[in-house]
Amino acid sequence: MAKKLNVTPLADRVIVKPAPAEEKTAGGIIIPDTAKEKPQRGTVVAAGPGKKDEPVTVKIGDTVLYGKYAGTEIQIEGDDFLIMRESDILAIV
Predict the structure, then answer these.
(1) Do residues 14 and 58 make contact, with C-beta atoms less than 8 angstroms apart?
(2) Angle at the Cα of 14 (from 37 to 75), degrees rounded to 5?
(3) What pTM value is reported for the model?
(4) Which residue has better confidence, 85 or 1?
(5) What are the distances in angstroms from CA 31 to CA 26, 36, 38, 40, 54?
(6) Which residue, among 83, 70, 89, has the nearest Cα to 17 in the 3D structure?
(7) Radius of gyration of the chain (CA)
(8) Which H or E run includes 83?
(9) Measured between alpha carbons, how far is 89 from 28 in angstroms, rounded to an integer?
(10) CB–CB of 47/14 below 8 Å?
């Protein structure tokens, strides 16, 4: 991500830019907008400092997997992001 966010998450929260939804299936079938799955992968664009005894382990630029309903959708400068606790992140890819 080229531009820097003017938002700094607090404590153990991270801001994730979700990956775009799949446009086609592996077989080449085009998926309509109404049937697209919510992406469960994204890139960390900002991370808080962590809690007192637990520093945040993800860093800016990491590609992560998260739960289907994890985080809160927010819009910053016209772009969609998710803000979630680090514990909502399942894995770093």
Answers:
(1) yes
(2) 60
(3) 0.82
(4) 85
(5) 11, 6, 12, 17, 41
(6) 83
(7) 14
(8) strand 79-85
(9) 30
(10) yes
What is the structure's pLDDT at 1? 45
- Those residues whose C-beta lies under 8 Å from the C-beta of residue 26, and which sit 6 or more positions away, are none
The single-letter DSSP state of residue 37 is P
Nearest to 14 by CA among 72, 67, 53, 68: 72
Contact 63, 41 (CB under 8 A): yes
The pairing of strands 13-18 and 79-85 is antiparallel
Q: Which residues pair with 24 in a beta bridge?
A: 30
State pLDDT tens for residues 22-73.
Answer: 777 788 888 787 777 777 899 999 999 998 898 999 999 999 999 888 899 9
Token readout for 87 is 């514990």
∠ CA 24-27-28 to the nearest 5 degrees?
40
